[in-house]
């Protein structure tokens, strides 16, 4: 707790929260509709609250909810959620040199809090890991500030949606604000030809396989894009393979 209070007082914590505040309203609208969707799909209040707090992954939740409502096999629900959240494996690998100096417990907690936009904002501000304790502390404070505000705004909106599930109609389309936010994230990450190819192939495959049940088109899109990029990616030079 002492370390957390120190991060909260750091100027970079406020900078992270301030940057996140510019996109938090769109994510909050998406969180609100996610909460409404969970209850209107047949989940109990306890189940919806538990899913919001424990899963904390909007795209995974929205992919799993219709599968749960349709009584899909557990393996289909787990496989879909796993594939949708595979991007966090990439995020974790990228953040490893930034956070390996942090003890395991706080590092796991930051992993739970970190989401798409907090990761994007962090890596935009800090292209390279800190080289000394002062820089590393500043980076940690910025990530904590953005991640905590993101988590708080999402959970507050999601829990409000759960409480008002019978009042807020789905046809308001507030969740579209969150989709627009994710589109912005995806476009900002498409910084290379390979990334743009993978995004285009995944989108085309998802549309082509849209008729598959249980939203399996998502799984197909991810598998096709990954397979194609593995085929197109040039092999690493011998010296890099030996170093790996």
Describe the structure.
The chain has 14 helices and no strands. With 244 residues, it is mainly α.
Key features?
single chain; 244 residues; mainly alpha; 14 helices; globular; disordered C terminus
Short précis:
This protein is mostly helical and 244 residues long. It is 77% helix and 0% strand. It is globular.
Oligomer: single chain
Estimate the strand proportion. under 5%
Number of helices: 14
> Uncertain regions: pLDDT < 50 for 5+ in a row?
240-244
Please bin the fraction of helical residues. Answer: over 70%
Largest sheet: none
Mean pLDDT level: 82
Strand segment tally: 0
Topology:
Elements: H1 2-9, H2 11-21, H3 24-40, H4 45-55, H5 58-69, H6 74-84, H7 87-99, H8 104-113, H9 116-125, H10 133-163, H11 175-189, H12 193-208, H13 216-232, H14 238-243
Helix pairs in contact: 2-10, 3-5, 3-10, 3-11, 4-10, 5-6, 6-13, 9-10, 12-13
């Amino acid at each position: 707790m002492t370390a957390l209070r120190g991060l909260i007082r750091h100027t970079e914590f406020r900078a992270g929260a301030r940057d996140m505040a510019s996109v938090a309203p769109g994510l909050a609208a998406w969180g609100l509709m996610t909460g409404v969707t969970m209850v209107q799909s047949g989940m109990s209040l306890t189940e919806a609250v538990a899913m919001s707090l424990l899963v904390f992954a909007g795209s995974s939740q929205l992919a799993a909810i219709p599968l749960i409502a349709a009584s899909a096999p557990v393996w289909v629900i787990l496989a879909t959620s796993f594939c949708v959240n595979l991007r966090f494996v990439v995020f974790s690998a990228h953040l490893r040199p930034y956070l390996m100096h942090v003890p395991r417990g706080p590092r796991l907690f930051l992993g739970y809090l970190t989401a798409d936009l907090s990761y994007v904002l962090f890596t935009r501000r800090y292209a390279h890991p800190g080289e000394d304790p002062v820089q590393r502390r500043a980076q940690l404070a910025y990530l904590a500030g953005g991640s905590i505000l993101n988590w708080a705004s999402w959970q507050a909106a999601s829990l409000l949606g759960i409480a008002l599930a019978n009042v807020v109609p789905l046809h308001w389309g507030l969740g579209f604000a969150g989709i627009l936010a994710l589109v912005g994230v995806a476009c900002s990450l498409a910084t290379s030809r390979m990334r743009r190819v993978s995004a285009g192939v995944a989108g085309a495959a998802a549309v082509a396989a849209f008729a598959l049940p249980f939203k399996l088109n998502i799984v197909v899109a991810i598998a096709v894009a990954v397979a194609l990029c593995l085929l197109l990616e040039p092999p690493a030079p011998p010296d890099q393979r030996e170093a790996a």
